[in-house]
Structure prediction request, 646 residues.
Amino acid sequence: MRSLAHKIRIFGTVALAFGVGAAMVPTALKAQEGQLSLLVWEGYADPSFVKDFEAESGCKVQATYVGSNDDFAPKLAAGGGVYDLLSVSSDAAEVLVRAGFVEPIDISKVPEWNNIYEAFRNVKSINVDGQVWAVPFTWGANPFLYRTDKITTEPDSIAVMWDPQYKGKIGMWDDKSMLYNAARMLGIADPFNMTDEELEKVKAKLIEQKPLVRKYWSTAGEVINLFASDEVWISYTWGGLMLNELGKQNIPVKEFTPKEGADGWNDNWMIAKGSPNMDCAMKYINYMMSAKGQCGVSTVTGYSATNPVAAKTCMSPEEFKAKHQDDIDFVGKLHMWQAPPRIEEYTNAWNAVKAAP
Amino acid sequence: MTGRGRRNLFAAALVSVPLAWTIVFMFAPYAIMFTYSFYTKKFPMFVPDFQFGNYLMLFQDIQYRQVFVRTFKIASIVSLVALLLAYPVAYCLVFKVHSRKIRMAIYMAIIVPLWASYLLRAYTWKTILGSQGVLNSFLVWSGILAEPTPLFLYNQFSMVITLVHIFVPFMFMPIFTALEKIPRSLLEASKDLGVGRLGTFLKVTLPLSVPGIVAGITFTFCLSFGDFIAPFLVGGPDGFMIANIVQSQFGTALNWPLGSAISIAILAIVLLVITLSDRLERAGRLDLG
Prediction:
């Protein structure tokens, strides 16, 4: 059995190397000219609006999806030249700038720039070192969804996620923003600047919740599936995108915004450093800022537009109002995501929650 | 050049291919990872350094110990269940199925799922074990359960089932080989000397198949120890395994130095298991004289 033992030794080591290595291999092909490679959230490269773009521009679009804002930097760190265009929430933008993963944007080549809500154009994390690094294209709030056939009274607080009545039917997003939500429920004043003590409290609260949780999900597709297959009755969600898809499958779900307030965010286009497709990337950005792109994304995802001038031409007055396009002050009522200055402690706390028994 | 010189050159060329392969695809990546494990995490990425903080972290922060222990537990249970399933099957196949054709057909039937995609097999378990899955539908339909139970999916139970199903061929193959190699004359001798069936099994067959068992356990344990797909697809909130931590350190946490240190720790554990199994196998050989 000498040779068998030897084979095992080699096999075991190689298998381990592959197992670990596989986590780091970028899934997309190397970026090619004319082939625009997007690293985006689900819903931002939907065929319903990408088809027209491809026909008009002659650029082909290929998308890889992220499950968290923390997915952008590692994917870019694993080697450049794979992705051209990224859709990053404002709070995650600055780390990409600082790490040198993105190109500055020449706003003189973005005709719709001045029509974008000022609140989003002026966000500090996309205006770094006197340059603009991103083009804001959509925004929204992250509500909770629940199955109306299983939960008959509309919940009003994040505390419902700790209700033992729903043990095994609760879904949580695998993302550090769960810390912000737990913090808000505990009445912590500034969830983005927690002290060690506050962070410990939040961590303990989330660990306490673990026996009630069915799954920490990481993609829109996954949580839609969890709702549809009766695994989950209530979950943190990205709102419209999931609501639309579940509606199509006739799954009775409704969204609610807890009294503690909802996470708010706005997403931006950023260009990856050294992209060989600058032309196509700028064309896609400008297409997404036009009426076709603004309403295209909004229809698929239910999110709001950042360009109200374009949105007015393609939304009905009711939709325009429902998506708060005439009332940008609504953004002030959301808890807009910010990058926590102590991001490492936050990531570590969320990992500790997942690691706990 | 003399004939001998040419032969030596040829031999060197032949050896250099696997050697180059090992250097490029094994030693170099491990050397890089080993180097990274001493670096320091610093916003936005990390900086070269030489310090042991990443390794110390593995002992200081309880989350890593918790996950190492869980991973060890899952991999052990998977190995044990796979052994209990694979051994009787391999035994029957070798000693009770006398037609060579049928034996090979069953052997292939057990091995063939290996050629199906890992992901596909894991997803299949999701559709079997889910709240609206095949198993629950059957139990409710047959009246055994009043309503579907959530107990089958998104927990350590579903992870063990999935991992056993995926890795059981690795347990089966070496045991089958070990059993097949046992000379029938030994079994007949035992019978002739008046030893019963159980006695023959315990004193002859089992000891002679130990190398196969050890090999099988080593395969299965190491493969499930490094798995990160099963926790992701069928695991629940208590299913986080060590490879998931590596993945999150290289991913969302953007802490490659810590991820490297954990990978090196995993490598050390796997090498230890392999060394131990090698010893065990050798000791087994001595017993037989």
About this structure: Chain A touches chain B through 49 residues (CB under 8 Å). Chain A is about 40% helix and 20% strand. Confidence is low (pLDDT under 50) at residues 1-29 of chain A.
